[in-house]
Amino acid sequence: MTIYPLVFSNNLKYRISRHVLFWTVWIAYYTFFMTLSWAEKYPFSIAFPASLIEESLAMPIDIIFCYAILYYLIPRYLFKGKYILMVLLWIGFGMAHIACFQFYSNHIIPEIRSTYHLPYSTHSKSFLWTFFYIFTQINMEASLAAAIKLGKMWYIKQQELDILKSEKLKIEPIENGKIQPIFLVNALDKLEMLALHKPSVLPQVIQKIKNLLLYVIYDNNQPKVSLEKELRLLEEFVELEKEGSTNMSVNMKIIGNTDGEKIAPFIILPLIENSFRQLSRLDLKNKFMNLEARIAEGVFLLKIIWSKPVDSSTLINNDSTFLQNIGKRLNLLYPQSHELRILINSDQFAINLKMDLHKAIN
Beta 248-255 vs 287-296: how paired, if at all? Predict the structure, then answer.
């Protein structure tokens, strides 16, 4: 088992493994120090098993508290800017944890220690002292777990930004220091052509280009966007590509319910644009492209098929860097929960993308 999938993979095997590892380390940590506290008066054969049992039986209380922070408070309150409410609920969860731990201390620990003939005495510390002492202890675990989760998300986002930067830098041309994605440049060239031959369609075409421009400026900087909006924009882009093309047949189908589904931006549209770009370079009398997007129970399927000359066997000019970068982004955002396949048949190319949208790293 390598380190990267153990830390980042959403595969159930790796997720269980890293959680088991985390809590095993904590049990070992507390058992070690408790065993040391008994070492001067009691032999290791008594101190160690008593400490191990005591800490292991108490750990489920810590696990519930920790996961309430990680999977309830952080996504519902921290990420949404509800900081005061989050702090209040954190304290409330801490008080509930302390109440459970006090019950455990008063009823379970004495039984364990009596079994191993170890002393147990209730201290008469104030509730306030007890609260802050236990609250500090449990938040060592919760804070470390939260730091690991947030650090992992930061690392993934930085890697994603690096890939996006490298992808955008290779998209030409660059004018006045500002990046102009190639599909927008092509769209403007098409606009010029339509102004000469089909001026009646210019208002609709300009609106589609405006929507694409807004997508590039704003949406691709968001961690997730609406899948419905992404597919609607995709339809507009396909219609834009069809304008003025006399030797290309394009069919597109969208199947399934997209309500509430989210997807990482800058994956679907650039993938489609790249396919149109490859098709435009081919020397064919009649060209075709078939697009199918399907969504079912959080699983998104995208199939892209386009024609090619029978005598060609590779992507145009071996231009696979773009697809490699898309693959890297998918590995970062949807680890172990996506498939990207490229098929080359005698007369057509095909790209099949499958993503489990619910298993993205947020």
Answer: parallel
**126-135: per-residue pLDDT in tens?**
666 666 777 7
Report the Cα 171 to chain-centroid distance in Å. 25
Take residue 192 and report the two structure tokens written for it.
């010029």
Express each pLDDT in 230-278 by its tens digit.
888 888 888 877 776 777 888 999 999 888 898 888 788 888 888 888 8
Residue pair 298/356 in contact by the 8 Å Cβ criterion: yes
With 0-12 CB in 10 A as exposed, 13-18 as middle and 19+ as buried, what is 227?
buried
- What pLDDT was estimated at residue 176? 36
CA distance 148 to 157: 14
Closest by CA position to 102, among listed 77, 119, 127? 127
Domain spans, the chain:
3-155, 170-359
- For residue 290, is pLDDT > 90? yes
Amino acid at residue number 302 = L
Beta-bridged to residue 55, according to DSSP, are none
Partnered with residue 289 across adjacent β-strands are 250, 306
Question: Which amino acid is it at 167?
Answer: E
**Distance between CA atoms of residues 286 and 222, nearest Å:** 38
Residue 237's closest CA among 197, 271, 263?
A: 271
Half-sphere exposure of 169 (CA within 13 A, CB side): 7
Distance (Å, rounded) from C-alpha 32 to C-alpha 37? 9
CATH architecture of the region 170-359: 2-Layer Sandwich (3.30)
C-alpha 174/C-alpha 185 separation (Å) is 10
Among 251, 273, 359, smallest CA distance to 322 is for 273
Quick check: 323 and 274 in contact, CB under 8 A? yes
Residue 336 structure tokens: 């172990």
